[in-house]
């Protein structure tokens, strides 16, 4: 799928592809929420898989503009909102929530606001955004709904599973893929080694998709 991706907007990559493959199993007939939509790649994937409705949210004005344009170009009737995670849809529930949030461990807990790093920097342990999604997802899922979150193994998939379970969801790691480090992870390799998040010399990253299900 050809997508307009202006500077400062996260371009769909291997993590998007991995999450999109799992999304395809659940999207048909559901109201879908795409958190941190970026270019709208996952929102469009949900629409192409037969979602009943698609809503996309991003804090970045550029991402919102890119997603609206991409939905227009592909004829997808998605609702696109600018806002912080669940805020624009505070009163709504969905059959499926998908998220490819920033998850790369960064030097400090201060998250960038106006630089490309806002698309990947996620605090010292990479969980600054992940934990907020885990803690809020259950309140926005319909009975029988699912949440799908993709991130790196360095962020601790077990923590993602446990946080989802603490909100009453059943959760598991459902997809894994091992890929070479991209440019950002390569630039952080020494930092990740010092923190014990990767083995010395390891330059392969395992991506995971965690699925939470509401009964």
Automatic annotation (TrEMBL):
SUPFAM superfamilies: S-adenosyl-L-methionine-dependent methyltransferases. PROSITE patterns: N6_MTASE. One of its GO terms (molecular function) is methyltransferase activity. Keywords: Methyltransferase, S-adenosyl-L-methionine, Transferase. GO terms for biological process: methylation. It comes from the Bacteria. Signal peptide: none annotated. Residues 15-104 form the Methyltransferase small domain. Belongs to the eukaryotic/archaeal PrmC-related family. This is Methyltransferase.
């Amino acid at each position: 799928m050809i997508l307009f991706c202006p500077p400062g907007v996260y371009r769909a990559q291997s993590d998007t592809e991995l999450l999109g493959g799992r999304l395809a199993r659940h999207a048909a007939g559901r109201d879908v929420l795409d958190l941190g939509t970026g270019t709208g790649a996952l929102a469009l994937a949900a629409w192409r898989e037969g979602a009943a409705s698609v809503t996309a949210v991003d804090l970045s004005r550029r991402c919102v503009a890119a997603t609206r344009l991409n939905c227009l170009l592909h004829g997808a009737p998605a609702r696109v909102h600018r806002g912080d995670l669940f805020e624009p849809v505070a009163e709504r529930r969905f059959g499926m929530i998908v998220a490819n949030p920033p998850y790369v461990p960064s030097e400090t807990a201060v998250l960038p606001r106006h630089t490309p790093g806002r698309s990947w920097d996620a605090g010292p342990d990479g969980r600054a955004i992940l934990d907020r999604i885990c803690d809020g997802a259950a309140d926005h899922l319909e009975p029988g709904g699912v949440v799908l979150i993709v991130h790196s193994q360095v962020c601790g998939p077990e923590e993602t599973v446990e946080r989802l379970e603490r909100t009453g969801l059943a959760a598991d790691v459902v997809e894994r893929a091992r890929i070479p480090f991209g440019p950002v992870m390569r630039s952080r390799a020494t930092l990740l080694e010092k923190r014990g998040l990767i083995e010395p010399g390891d330059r392969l990253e395992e991506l995971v998709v965690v699925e939470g299900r509401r009964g």
